[in-house]
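Example for reference:
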Amino acid sequence: MTPTPNESDWWRQPAKPLHRPAGEAAARRQAQLTKPPGALGRLEAIAIQLASMQGRERPALERAQITVFAGDHGVMAEGVSAFPQAVTGEMVKNFARGGAAISVLAREQGVRLEVVDLGTVNDPGPLDGVIRLRLAPSTANFTSAPAMTESQFEQALAAGRAAVARAAGAGAQLFIAGEMGIGNTTAAAALACGLIGLPAQLMAGPGTGLDAEGVARKAAVIDRALACHAGQLAEPAEALRRLGGFELAAIAGACIACAQKGLPMLVDGFIVTAAALAAVRMQPTVRDWLLFAHASAEPGHGHLLQMLGAQPLIDLNLRLGEGSGAAVALPLLRLACALHNGMATFAEAGVSEKHG
């Protein structure tokens, strides 16, 4: 029996197919524009890719949405962050007041921004622009138990799906997921290790600013978590439930929902990429709908990008999170569309084409 979209395993439904004829038409247009073939490099490929995603020869990105998913982590009991756990809730307030980096980036580009509070130890209370779901004050400490119950996991996935539905309903042509959760680089690194089998020392990084001793402690914590859940990580959804976080699961759900709706998603850095890898492992057809924004300064990010066959658009040594790297890369996508749509063809401009 084919599951219906309302069932808990909605995420098993495949992605919407790309519109290959639109991509082919966009490629033909690129070949006719007043420039040498390939002279605009990856900007040409981006325009063609977006054409396939949007099902039209001339893609557009006037409307985008950023959703920041916030959640706290039980693994913080192991001392894995340079910042106190209270910062998660405090940053939710900062998002709502417009003072965070992602708030500025969204405002400057005219992008709709929302925040989803999935559960913070330091409850910020009701705030304008913040959706309160609050599955629990935090996940469980995954060194000794699964991070999420099955119910929490399903609700977190569904939160990502709901955010995508809101974005599509508002006419968004691109979705960006951001995250906030002190300790979530540990969760992302543990999840990555669980999904691809690399040792913790290759994935653990400084996060919010750990020194070498702190990074070594983080790697040891991840090793304990992997040992605790050994034999239970073969299924990617189960790996995400056991080693992830509320925000990671929500982002994975958003990746899958974007692909099912045919809404391109611009993937941020290390944490969002770990969730994206989980989503692709859960539903491989999701990969067609993901664009990758930047190369994070977190050392494990390169391994994740390699597993996804992804080439990020920019490398600015960013490691803030919040969706900020994706927001910084957004203008490149918009410029790719503008060049593709606005340049004259050789025939229109009366310019002689290359011979041979």
Q: What stands out?
A: Confidence is low (pLDDT under 50) at residues 1-5. The beta strands are 64-70, 112-117, 130-132, 174-180, 265-267, 290-292.
